[in-house]
Amino acid sequence: MCCPLRLLPGPSQAEQRTLIGWQLRLSRKLERVPGRRPQAFRWTLRLHKLVKLRRLVVWAQAFFFISAPELPILVIVLGDSLLALALILLYQLLLNFINLRHFNMVGTPELRDLPPPPLPKRSFDVAIIGAGIVGNALAVALGNQGRSVLLLERDLSEPNRIVGELLQPGGVRALAQLGLQDCMDEIDSVPNYGYQVRYHNKPVQIPYAREENGKRPEGRCFHHGRFIQRLRAAAKAAPNVTIVEATVSKDLIRNAGHVVGVRCTPRGTKDEICYFASLTVAADGCKSNLRADAISRTPEVKSHFFGLELIDAKMPLKNHGIVILCNRAPVLVYQIGTHETRALVDIRGKPPSQADGSLKAYMLGAVLPTMPEELQPSFRKAIEDSKSIRSMPNQWLPPTANRTPGLMLLGDAMNMRHPLTGGGMTVAFNDVVLLRDLLEGVSDLSDTDLVLEKMEEFHWRRRNLTSVINILAQALYALFAADDPNLKVLQRGCFNYFQRGGICIDHPVGLLSGVLRKPLVLYTHFFAVAFYSIWIMFKTSSPLLWPMCIFRSFAVFYTACVVILPYIATEQQS
Ligand SMILES: Cc1cc2nc3c(=O)[nH]c(=O)nc-3n(C[C@H](O)[C@H](O)[C@H](O)COP(=O)(O)OP(=O)(O)OC[C@H]3O[C@@H](n4cnc5c(N)ncnc54)[C@H](O)[C@@H]3O)c2cc1C
């Protein structure tokens, strides 16, 4: 390597020795590099500096020997430049070699078994997807526990939906336990004291059952959007809560099977950003796009609710939800503001088309005549005035225990029931209360095993309330939307059962309102209704028909079992 310098005249011997010394040292360092990977990297950097210095020396030589014959100078310059070039190439090769080694290292099996890397500094204790009913309440509850909470919502403007407008007393109580009862104030909400069920226009009043202190509890009706905005304001004001308006992608960030964060696109941008959290809660509602990632169950659409807003409607019974039963699926009516009343018309199977006007024709021709007389004018006007009638699917999704490390599904994303009994928000707020209490003892949410243990406990402990609300909603809907003769016997029997009053209404309404949390009481009343329906069938039939009634009573009892037992079974599963 040093031959050109030694053979050619030009630099003095001392200068030549210096140059040769540089080259020798460089080559020695290069030889030492393999096998010492981290060192080697540092050496290549130093080498880079040396090569630069070497070039300076060469150019200094050229300048210094400018008076010498031209040829040797050129050869020296050329020789040293080539040498410098060779060293640079060598250095590049070395770098590639190191990169290659480094790349291979990540893929080695021993390293795959490493525990997940520590979370980056810019991370949260909890990331909640969806600032709806569950998301806001949970953000407030966990923020108050001193945890850093990130709440992600795709649209922070006031929602305009036909869902979540009647909060049962059991939900009102849970809201108070979360310190959020104020959210029902200043939104023109209306108190609700129970139901009136109308069977072919014969009414029966079902007030909420008295509590131990002798008082009748109160539910509340409101505009969903206004309530949500109040909940969001509470979340914004809560300590440790950061709200970001962004749509979360369904591809969560995972590390060795653990969910460690979310990818989202902030509103008004196209760039995807990442947030990291010890626990990610998917509270993104009935159309959750994260559900499929965590559970295998899919929601079953039972029917659709078509929603109308009646203005200044004359209610048959003030401050009560009205349930209208006839030969079709039920209609539910309740006041949501001083001047506004919601009517939800249930339609089973394929609904009539909006586009060709069949839906309006159906509403005017088939539904309107079955409505209480005092409601008919406002109902007719609402149909005629509405450009398009909004609808929502009524779905059934039994609960599933959360078993994905780092991820939890909550609210409609995890569990849904028919909204006829207005139980969704009551379940949601009670779930938040239970989860808050269970996580109270968990100091570090990245302790995945402990969190998973708590989630299992959550799944089983919520059942007393939620299974009651879920099964009741599904069973009552089957009876109220009776579409076969045996179900019609049960429907009539159920109405007559309510007419008996006393515990025949106090217990069922206590279960429905989320106050009475005893599944056994539900099963007892359900089968009491089945036997009472059979008894009514005999009572109202001529003795000549009794032999047929005996045969029919088996069919009715079998139908009752088919209505309730599958729901009880799914609620027992994990
Ligand atoms: C027709 C109908 C009527 C109902 N009526 C009642 C009633 O009267 N009383 C009652 O108690 N229950 C009722 N329910 C049920 C109730 O509405 C739900 O149980 C409740 O709203 C569930 O709350 P949630 O927080 O799970 O979902 P939601 O309240 O739906 O909240 C989900 C939130 O997530 C956001 N989101 C979704 N995807 C993303 C994403 N990718 N990124 C960021 N944000 C996202 C949404 O914008 C939304 O704000 C009704 C349901 C239906 C279908």
TrEMBL record:
Its EC number is 1.14.14.17. Coiled coil: none annotated. Pathway: Steroid metabolism; ergosterol biosynthesis. GO terms for biological process: ergosterol biosynthetic process. InterPro entries: FAD/NAD-bd_sf, Squalene_epoxidase, Squalene_monox. Its cofactor is FAD. GO terms for cellular component: endoplasmic reticulum membrane. It comes from the Eukaryota. The keyword Nucleotidyltransferase does not apply. It catalyses: squalene + reduced [NADPH--hemoprotein reductase] + O2 = (S)-2,3-epoxysqualene + oxidized [NADPH--hemoprotein reductase] + H2O + H(+). Keywords: Endoplasmic reticulum, FAD, Flavoprotein, Lipid biosynthesis, Lipid metabolism, Membrane, Microsome, Oxidoreductase, Steroid biosynthesis, Steroid metabolism, Transmembrane, Transmembrane helix. The chain crosses the membrane at residues 82-100, 520-538, 550-569. One of its GO terms (molecular function) is squalene monooxygenase activity. It is found in: Endoplasmic reticulum membrane; Microsome membrane. Gene3D superfamilies: FAD/NAD(P)-binding domain. Residues 276-550 form the Squalene epoxidase domain. It is a multi-pass membrane protein. It is an enzyme of class 1 (oxidoreductase). Catalyzes the stereospecific oxidation of squalene to (S)-2,3-epoxysqualene, and is considered to be a rate-limiting enzyme in steroid biosynthesis. Belongs to the squalene monooxygenase family. This is Squalene monooxygenase. It comes from Drechslerella stenobrocha 248.
